[in-house]
Amino acid sequence: MSPSQDPGTADAGTPAGAAPTARLRVQRVRPAYRQVADDLRSQIMRGVVPPGDRLPSEPELATAFGVSRSTVREALRVLASQHLIETRRGVRGGSFVAAPDPARVVEDVGGALGVLVTTPHLRMEDLLEARLLLEPAAARLAAQRADAETVEAVRIAAEAPRDPQDPTGFVPHLDFHTTVLMATGNLMFTMMGQPVHDVLRTQLDRDRVARSEWDEVDECHRVIAAHIAAGEDVAAEEAMRSHLLDLRVLYHRAARWRGPGQQT
């Protein structure tokens, strides 16, 4: 494996017929280890190095990229933190390309959002706007695609009783929305929606909203589930959109954090 390189980047002094030595074209505005990590990540994502394959050793990578071993080592740490490679010790050890794990990706994104909500950069409205774009479309697709078993899972999620071990009461409510995302059969819907749900689960205080209003939320879930079960895609989409617009009012009241532009 060698760094990505455009024609004409080899040393002009290379003798004719000799194999040019690949060099990383370092951009001063970005650390060299980031550039090495980006190049390796690109090759992994393009399947140049498939899951399970071993990457070249640190000395081999350092030679290929024209950087120090410490730079390569830092680049590999970046890839490991992104779960793209895993390091094994021993005689047959080294850095190996890891198989993608959707659950890990969702967890990482959720963790990143969790950090963002402690800063002034992420507003409650940002999360709600994202849901308003994603979940009505998911309800429509679920009504179009869900088989009998999936429809039953959506119905059960809509009817789920409150968990006495969940004082916030958000588990069954957000689990219903996650189940609708899963009912699309499209993994990307689940991966995009779940981190947002995880943040809402931890950043909302249900005690700021009357119990009767949460009962209305339960009823909305049952209506959406019924539309999905009947294959009524347009009605399911509109019911989900109306439901999320109603939730905006409740969520702003229940929010534990205040981003820029939000009233206290």
UniProtKB/TrEMBL annotation:
Keyword annotations of the record: DNA-binding, Transcription, Transcription regulation
Residue ranges occupied by any HTH gntR-type domain in the UniProt entry: 30-100
Span list, region Disordered: 1-22
PROSITE patterns: HTH_GNTR (PS50949)
Pfam families named in the record: FCD, GntR
InterPro entries in the record: GntR_C, TF_FadR/GntR_C, Tscrpt_reg_HTH_GntR, WH-like_DNA-bd_sf, WH_DNA-bd_sf
Record keyword Flavoprotein present: no
Coiled coil, from the record: none
Keyword Aminoacyl-tRNA synthetase part of the UniProt annotation: no
GO molecular function terms listed in the Swiss-Prot or TrEMBL record: DNA binding; DNA-binding transcription factor activity
Protein name as catalogued: GntR family transcriptional regulator
Organism: Pseudonocardia sediminis
